[in-house]
Amino acid sequence: MTELAAGLPREGRSVAKTRGRMLDEAALSEVRALIDAEPVRDRLIEHLHALQRTHGHISAAHLRALADLLRIGQAEVYEVATFVSVRRTSRSA
Asked: For residues 59 and 26, is the Cβ–Cβ distance under 8 A?
């Protein structure tokens, strides 16, 4: 067992400090205001569209806040946001 694992509780071995981008409370409240009902992962694209319509762009702070509300990874939110962006801009002639 590593030194890190030895010092953590057995269940939910996670470091108390979040790694990566820290949560911005202002962005979190803005995202909460846009999501009317209970945040649901299945509506991720709809939430991203709402952010885009409201702010004209989707900031990294908003992506982090959305990931926190939906309880999914930031990478997953980023992947969906960039995939949707690519699909919108690539039109066949």
From this structure: no
Token code pair at residue 22: 């820290």
- Nearest 10 degrees: Cα torsion 56, 58, 61, 66: 120
pLDDT score of 68 more than 50: yes
CB-based contact 20:74 (threshold 8 Å): yes
Percentage of the chain modeled with pLDDT above 90: 34
Give the contacts of 7 (CB within 8 A, at least 6 positions apart). none
pTM of the shown model: 0.69
CB atoms within 10 A of CB 36: 8
